[in-house]
Design brief:
CATH class of the largest domain: Alpha Beta
Number of domains: 2
CATH architecture of the largest domain: 3-Layer(aba) Sandwich
Shape: elongated
Strand content: 15-25%
Number of strands: 19
Radius of gyration: 23 Å
Distance between the termini: 6 Å
Structural class: alpha/beta
Largest sheet: 6 strands, parallel
CATH topology of the largest domain: Rossmann fold
Helix content: 25-40%
Strand order of the largest sheet: 6-7-5-2-8-9
Number of helices: 16
Length: 404
């Protein structure tokens, strides 16, 4: 099986370039603390404690978007989690950046400016092309090793992800190790009992592709969210389409309905759909309706109902493994969190291997007081998690792997 050289293998007293994923919500111009800082702080802290000089790379947003900002605020949050100073230089690879790197003492940490403020970073290209950019060549000349800890961005062919492994000895950080191990488990591990997958969220195209790819691997799928409504539509119920002001269902139905109908026809026994749905009642409170009683869609359905949660729970508790991709409802609104939280609580209490994937879904764990330790792994990856589940390659991961 492919494996990684890890940060344990880095020669002593090295200057190490570490790619993190600190991409965060931006509110009033400031980055918000989240699970990514906490996770990556483990890698950064271990490297600094070992006496390495640590140079951190990360991105925030994309050019032209509101969340495309400097990383100065990220340095402060990272410092709190690492429990040591994290210096910041507002330069990606110019003289200010290289001088700051050369001035580092053992155990010191530096964060350089947003990688996406460098013209060489974003256009997707081959690793060989990225390794030959001025950005990679310049920084590589001032460090001894490269560590990729940004599993959640590993599906991208950007310079900071695929260029440096060809220019420097390359290693996996702790987040990279943990995410790879958990997110590829569905294809690598053998489970004695049933494998259950909870499917939800708003990006039905992604999760329907996962369902199609995991034929023969997953014994039962429990559906909610947009994907759940689209499957209900394919089953003949008058849901799964847009009302006025919506833009969630119709376009996705157009691109996925043939796959949805085929998967439902071929593997209907393994697919479990909501028996009831929740919506906002006339008084503003949560209301529920049985799917069989819906003659016409007049309300936006924002969660699966209580009967559905009760139906899904035993299919979780008797499973040997449970994988989650996407929330079953709009859990950010407490009125419509019952489906997502009910399923997560059932997983937390079950004696099974469990992976909760996707940043939005994993956020519900903290919001509703669940203990992250009750799950085998809580992933901070989105697109990379989808690719891992479907067996698609992750370019930045492949460049770190060796064959034992």
């Amino acid at each position: 099986m492919p494996s990684f050289p890890t940060i344990d293998d880095i020669p002593a007293d090295s200057c190490v370039l570490v790619r993190l994923d600190l991409n965060s919500p931006i509110e009033a111009g400031e980055p918000q603390d989240n699970r990514r800082f906490e996770r990556h702080a483990v890698t950064v802290g271990e490297l600094a404690d070992a006496g390495h000089r640590v140079v951190c790379l990360a991105h925030q947003g994309r050019p032209g978007r509101d969340d495309f900002t400097s990383l100065s605020g990220h340095a402060k949050i990272l410092a709190d989690h690492v429990d040591r100073d994290v210096a910041f230089v507002p330069d990606t690879h110019g003289e200010a950046a290289t001088e700051a790197i050369d001035a580092l003492a053992p155990g010191e940490v530096l964060l350089v400016e947003n990688t996406r403020m460098c013209d060489d970073e974003l256009p997707e290209a081959s690793p060989e092309t990225k390794a030959d950019t001025e950005y990679v060549r310049t920084l590589a000349a001032h460090v001894d090793a490269y560590v990729n800890d940004a599993y959640s961005a590993a599906h991208r062919k950007h310079a900071s992800l695929v260029g440096f492994p060809l220019a420097l000895p390359a290693y996996a950080g702790r987040v990279m190790e943990a995410e790879y191990e958990a997110n590829t488990a569905i294809g690598r591990k053998s489970f004695d009992g049933p494998v259950t997958m909870v499917i939800g969220g708003t990006k039905a195209t992604d999760v329907i592709g996962v369902m199609d790819a995991l034929e023969g691997t997953v014994d039962r799928f429990l559906l909610g969210g947009v994907a759940g409504e689209l499957f209900l539509r394919a089953a003949g119920h008058p849901v799964g389409y847009d009302l006025d002001g919506m833009d969630l269902f119709d376009d996705q139905w157009e691109t996925t309905h043939e796959t949805v109908e085929r998967v439902l026809d071929e593997r209907g026994d393994s697919i479990h759909l909501a028996s009831d749905l929740a919506y906002e009642g006339a008084d503003g409170d949560r209301a529920e309706v049985r799917v069989e009683a819906i003659d016409e869609k007049t309300d936006a359905y924002l969660d699966v109902g209580s009967e559905t949660v009760a139906d899904y729970e035993p299919r979780i508790t008797d499973a040997d493994a449970v994988f989650v991709k996407g929330a079953l409802g709009v859990f950010e609104d407490e009125r419509f969190a019952d489906g997502t939280v009910g399923v997560l609580e059932a997983i937390a209490e079950a004696d099974c291997f469990s992976v909760v994937g996707g940043g939005d879904t994993s956020r519900a764990i903290g919001m509703y007081g669940l203990d992250e330790d009750d799950f085998s792994h809580v992933s901070i990856a989105g697109g990379a998690y989808i690719r891992a589940l479907t067996g698609e390659p992750l370019p930045a991961v492949e460049l770190l792997q060796t064959d034992d």
